């Protein structure tokens, strides 16, 4: 797996998200308080910036219309019958205090 | 325009008119009602009798409904005659009204058997709101009440009068209560439950005479026994009101005969409700009558097609708190019928299924009717029960909680009282974004009758509504399952100063977008700003001090106290708009200027360039004070609105509130800045100020209530401060002042703010000052405390894609 060095872990305070651009991709990188997770920064509902959402556990709520997305699976968990496609998730790890991310397809 | 007359202002007639209004039509509608009341919910009369509801609370269509729909109500006028040839009706007042089409919705009257003495004083029937009021007038605690009739109506009357403290006996002719719906064993279960509630039941008693000298004193039965009574309610059944139908020359049997399209024997006259007879059947429950109304509405508006195919052979009732359900046959003596029973005397639950040829033939449930939908489904579809035999009396354990709800067909009636189907409920949830039970009740009326379907409606709502939330008085959310009032107390008494502490100790440790902002508000308010601020628990607007827009950009609104600005400020705003290529500059409804489409990364620099304070247009907090020109320039101004408005805004700005908080000050009663529809308004008049609170001009319009009238500007400002802090401390998060004022009542608010004793007022103001001292202009934060939140992360190495 190819890992990209992104940023020192302290850039992102606990329970907040930040936007990260890698080439054409806009990602939302989160510190859930006990680990780091990354998803595509685009709510499947109307494209809202997930990085600006409120984080509760491993769930983020889109700031535009309160859709909830699971940061582990990328699935929309509310509304429950949205039929929306999941958002893409990305592997993240922290090594020597640096957040690392991979663009490899999981 | 065609003239449509509806005779009868009860549930069936008005429900039919409601349905007609849904079609394109050219009717000029007049509704005659012999009762003087607007259309009310007859099912709930027993709740009025029991003192649980007021007469106003059971109104279904208030007078505004008639007005806004262009319907002429003629209340208190009984129609005495109909001339079908000349197409006119004659009122008991002698008035003659012509019609093109006529709907008879005359309902039914209480059947009073011809017992000697039935005309004595204190012998009543229980059918209308006036009957109910008469009974309430006579009912006295400890009074001896006898109800003749052990059917639904009689038992409901007994319940109401017992709640009034009367000593109630139900006397019934048949050997079983509700013998039309229940078998002997089911009736016995119901009787036991009712007797446990303190109502005596005498069965198999035929009343021969009512005794007493002028006023009723007792009953004499055919067996010779006598029973003392000072109030008698006759609930021996109902009979359809067919007299007008007869006068109109319609075909009458027991009721006015209607076909499947609700047409009578006269092509211009229709009938609906309890006065009708359809396929030989009469009707007494509401659900089929509402169904009739829908069919008739289609027929009469030229959309003839839908047919009424008779009542569902089911009755689901709640009698004195006991659930009773009955459908199909109750006769187990028929050849080839097997009876399957379950009884739990301790719980008072009785179930009996009749099965014939492996098909459900009848069902009786007493004490627990939660499974009724399965049975009505089986009855209607004549389901082969072979695969279900092991689970006839109890449903199989659900594999999926949503399955039970999913298994109910859309056409199935969920609320029998109001005739609301599952499909209608789901439609309403989707079409109107319904998220709470109270909204669902308001919109569909489901669960506003006996309430026995409330649980099912809640489960439906939970399964279907994308925005499901518990009703407001209930817990904040699943993460911290406490009512907000309790949470405020916990935060205070347990000295919790951060959102995360509350979540860790009293919640799931995680939280969500519902509870986190609410808890943020609560800890800030309780500790007057001396809390541990956790920006991660705030909505994005409160982290970057700007309002997020649909495309992820932000809007910037600088504060202009009282709507007053200067050429210098306007120049700075113009320069900022140019420099940052702001796509849209707009004057807001709040007398300020909005810069829309700003990039998040530009926000801190814009604040610095503007050098103006934040207008807090993005938060649940103090927004602004609108003012009129007032006495400084206006010819009519009596008070200096601008000075007062600027001062009011200065005193309250930068503080959080449960929901946004908008104010206005006007210098005279012409009200140019719309103070009467603001959360707080000051209205100047000669020599005094009126302080008004709880106004709204949003989704709904509400005129603010007068809090107090005071003589000086200082006292007016203080009244605003008192109300403001009282609202901060007592309202639930996301509760606007207009809901808050309605919930508590202005009298209570007045007593606890402006009319409170000195110490109470002083400490309210003291806490407000403390919070104010801790508050500051959010835009002065600039890049602190989180510079990284405004910009994208720059990766330490580039991706080698």
* Relative strand content of chain A: 35-45%
Q: Any idea of the CATH class of chain A?
A: Mainly Beta
Strand content of chain B: 15-25%
Spatial separation of the terminal alpha carbons of chain A = 10 Å
Bin the helical content of chain A.
under 10%
Biggest sheet of chain B, in brief? Answer: 5 strands, parallel
CATH superfamily of chain A: Rieske [2Fe-2S] iron-sulphur domain
Number of helices of chain B: 24
Number of structural domains of chain A: 1
The main sheet of chain A orders its strands as 2-3-4-9
Q: Please tell me the CATH architecture of chain A by its name.
A: 3-layer Sandwich
Structural class of the helix and strand makeup of chain A? mainly beta
Span between termini of chain B: 73 Å
Number of strands of chain B: 40
Q: Give the ordered list of helices and strands of chain A.
A: EEEEEEEEEEE
**Global Rg of chain B:** 33 Å
Record field, number of beta strands of chain A = 11
Could you say what the CATH topology of the largest domain in chain B is called? FAD/NAD(P)-binding domain
Please tally the helical runs of chain A, counting DSSP H or I stretches of 4 or more residues: 0
Low-confidence stretches of chain B: none
Descriptive account of the structure:
The complex is a heterodimer of chains A (106) and B (801). Chain A contains no helices and 11 strands. Chain A is an all-beta fold. Chain A has one domain: 3-layer Sandwich (Rieske Iron-sulfur Protein), CATH 2.102.10. In chain A, the strands form 3 sheets. Chain A has a 4-stranded antiparallel sheet, with no helix packed on it. A 4-stranded antiparallel sheet of chain A has the order 5-6-7-8, with no helix packed on it. Chain A has a 3-stranded antiparallel sheet with strand order 1-11-10, with no helix packed on it. The radius of gyration of chain A is 13 Å and the shape is globular. Chain A starts with a strand and ends in a 5-residue tail after the last strand. The model of chain A has no long low-confidence stretch (mean pLDDT 93). Chain B has 801 residues and is α/β, with parallel strands linked by helices. Chain B is built from 24 helices and 40 strands. Chain B has a 5-stranded parallel sheet with strand order 3-2-1-7-19. Chain B is elongated and about 95 Å long. Chain B starts with a strand and ends in a 27-residue tail after the last helix. The interface between A and B is large, with 41 and 33 residues.
